[in-house]
Amino acid sequence: MPGWFVYILRCADGTLYTGVTTDPERRLREHNAGGKLGARYTRARRPVEMAYQELAADKAEAYRREAAIKKLKREAKLATLFPSPSGGGGGGEGEGDGRNQQ
Asked: Considering only the top CATH level, what class is 4-86?
């Protein structure tokens, strides 16, 4: 049985997109292809790159972790998921996970 992953993509415009998949490499290709399999949010923000991924114990845990990540503000996501020695998180105010913006 395949594992479940939570992943974060960095879009060409600098925004972040969080998702869940069983195959991060395939999912990245789908996002960059821009067809029906890619998310609507990422289609206009290609190319995207895999910025982070983590293996979850099961599907339910993956979706719980995705929800927890999406609740974080951008600065907290960057500081938690991409720590830097200088302590700077980068990014602009008001930018967050694309799937939460409407």
From this structure: alpha beta
